[in-house]
Amino acid sequence: MSREMGRDDFVISARSVFLNKGNRQKFSLLTLIIISIVILSLEYFKSGPVNQIRMFTKDIIIKSSYAASVPFKSISNTYSTVVDHFKMYEEYEKLKKAERKKQNLMLENNFFKEENQRLKKLINEKNLYNDEFYITKVLLDQKSPYLRSLLINKGFKHGIKLGAAVRSGSYFIGKIVDSNYLTSRILLISDLNSKIPVIIEPGSISAILSGTGDHELGQIEYLPENINIEEGGIVYTSGSDGVISSGIPIGKIILENNMIKVDYFTDFTQINFVKVYYKK
Amino acid sequence: MSIINKTYSKFLSIFPVVILFISVLSNSKYNFIYDENYLSFYISYVIIFFWSLKRPEYFGYGFIFFAGILNDVIQNNPLGISSVEYLLICVLTAFVRRRIILQNLMYDWVFFLISILIVGSINYIILVYIFNIPIVYNSLLLGLFATFLIYPIFAKILSWIDNIVQVSINDKKNQ
User: Fold this and answer.
1) Residue A183 sits in which domain range?
2) Sign of the C-alpha dihedral, residues B108, B109, B112, B114?
3) What is the pLDDT of residues A56-92, one digit of tens each?
4) Do the chains contact at B98 and A16, CB–CB below 8 Å?
5) A142 and A239: one domain?
6) Domain of residue A148, CATH code
7) Chain B contact for A50 (CB, 8 A cutoff)
8) Number of folded domains in chain A?
9) How far is A26 from chain B (nearest CA, A)?
C-alpha cells in the first residue's frame, strides 16, 4: 500500500515538474526539452535549407554575442590598462636601463669605427666602400625557379655601378648585375647564378654562398675541409671580392640532410623598397 | 519612486539572468590547462542549479533554453545540447524542490554533484556516441569535479546577491 503511495507521489511530482508552469514561466520544461531535442536532431542535416537556417541563426547569435561582449571586453581592456599603469614605473625602469645600455654600445661602436679608420690610414688602405645609398622602389619582381631578380628605378645616371651591394633593411639581398640609364637589375642571392663570398661567424670561416632558386634557403659551398659548422651561425658578406662591403648580415646557418644551408633573414617575396649603395 | 530607484530595482530583478548570460558569453575565460588536461569550470551549471533550486521565479526556462543555444554557438557544440543539459538541471532541481522541505548547503552540494554527473554523462554520451565528437574524458571529469569543489563559494556569493534582490523586492512591495 505504502509502496503504491510512494510510486503515485513520484508520478505526481514528475508530472508537476515537467508539465506545470511556475511563476513567470511561459513554457513548461517538457516543451522546451522537446524543442531542444528537435534542434539537436536537426544537427544531422548538414545541407539543404535546414543548414542554411542554422547558419543564419548562428550568424545572428554570433553577431549579437559580439555586440553583447563589447562591454565585457572594454571592462577587461580597462583592467589591462590599469594593470599596465601600475606596471609603468617598473617598465620605465627597465627601458631606462636598456636605453643606457644601448647608448653605451653606440658609443663603443663609434669608438671602434674611428679606431678602424685611423688604423686603415696608418696602413694606407683605401676605403673601397661607400656608405651612401639610395632608397629605391622595386619596379618589377621577376620570379621563376631559375630567375630571381628585381628591377629598380635608379640607374647609372644616379651613380649606380655594376656589382653594387643592395640591402633590404639591414640585410644583404643581392647585387647590381645590369645598370641602365634610369633603371638597374638586381640579382638576388637566391638566384641560381648568384655566388657571393661570405664569412661564417663564429670562427670567421670563409666560403661561398650559392643561390638555389629557393627564396628561403641558400647553400654554402667551397668550405675548407674538416671544418665543423654549427647550426645557428650567422653568415655575413666577407667583402673579399672588393666590391661588396664586408660584414653585412645575410642569414643563419641551418643543417639539413648533412648539407649546410643558409636561412635568409629577408623574405624575398615581400620586398618593395631596397637600399642601393653607390660611389660618388 | 525616482527613476534611478526604478531602474535599480528593475536591474536587480533581471540580475540573475544577466549573471547567467555573462557566464555563458565569457565561458572561454574559465578554461585552464592542468596536467596536460583542459580544466573547465562549468559556472553556468552552478548558476542554473542555484537559482532554479532557490528562486525558480527569477528566470524563466525560456531564458535558460536561450542561454544553452547561445553557449552552443559560442562553443561550437551541436545546437541544442547545452539547452538539454541546462533544462535537465532544472528538471532535477524542480524534482528536489518538490520532495525536500528543508534545504541546507550540504544537501545542495551533494545533490549538485549528482546532478552534474548525470548532465556530464548525458553530454558525453550525446557528443561521443551520437555526434562522434572526440572528448577527453579526463578533462570532462576533472572539470566537473572542479565545478563541484567551487560550488559552496559560488553558493555563498549567489545567496548574498539573492538577499540584495529580496530586499529590493520587499522594498518595492512596501511602497
Assistant:
1) 133-277
2) negative
3) 777 777 777 777 767 777 887 888 888 888 888 888 9
4) yes
5) yes
6) 2.40.10.340
7) no
8) 2
9) 7
